[in-house]
Amino acid sequence: MLKNRIAYFLLLFTFQNVGSAHGEILPIDEVNVDGGDFYVGLVFGKEDYAAHANTHLTPFSIMRTEVTYHQYQALQAWAETRGYQISGGCNGATFEDCWPSEKDGGRHPVTNVSWWDAVIFANALSAQHNLQPYYVTADGQALKIPPEEGTDRGIRENPQASGYRLPTLAEWQVAARGGNKGLSDGTYGSRYAGKDQPASVANLPVSGTQTFSTLPVASKQPNSLGLYDMSGNVSEWLNENYAVKGGKKMYYFCGGSYMDRVGSLASCDVHTPGFAMSDIGFRLVRPIDDK
């Protein structure tokens, strides 16, 4: 299916200089999102969103930025020695190719990763942080290797797990809108993550531009929760799916990208879990009660 869109610098420098190949724990910067009742949908502008809540969320934490190439490579080196199989990914990308792995210290979002890559990365990160894996096999073991196509029916999710996973569509949109802080400061109804115009908060293509590429994460302004790039740098894989004919699962990815100028943060598309593209990455969430 074609893509059809229906002071922090210091922390990043720390990421650049901390690896996990030799057993160091990969540092993850996260933001807590309050639980409660929220509106999720296609309505934007000045509205009473608290009075029109249509979904309930439990508290969770979400990564402040998309997973960077440096983080991905550092954990991959640790994970491969423990039986995890994750593809190489790219240090962001241009319209035509990956950026060199050393560009900007690997601080571009990792791209060219499939949904399977994202969830196995999540399990590996959980293992490194001594958390329970969310994605498990039929016999209850942590998923470490992408299943062969058509053999994924035995894969399970453990909703009681303390570990990392991809966000649901509702979690992702509430976080992008700013959660309770967005409701308080009036930005919950912004079409992009904290703003009605994307230029200051999202890396989206501009009319007349001849070059398209990712930027290092957190190059734009954050939203009310302090989350970066929710409306675009790359689109982000979610845990949400729906089954098409024959029971085949299609997974959502949401948000704009350097190649796709979306009309709002509610723009999403779907694809198969083995699909990877140069403008799709991910960030992870986990329950905050187990921290």
TrEMBL record:
Signal peptide: none annotated. Disulfide bonds join 90-98, 254-268. Residues 29-286 form the Sulfatase-modifying factor enzyme-like domain. GO terms for molecular function: formylglycine-generating oxidase activity. Keywords: Capsid protein, Virion. Coiled coil: none annotated. It comes from the Bacteria. PANTHER family: FORMYLGLYCINE-GENERATING ENZYME, SULFATASE MODIFYING FACTOR 1, 2. This is Spore coat protein CotH. It comes from Serratia sp. (strain ATCC 39006).
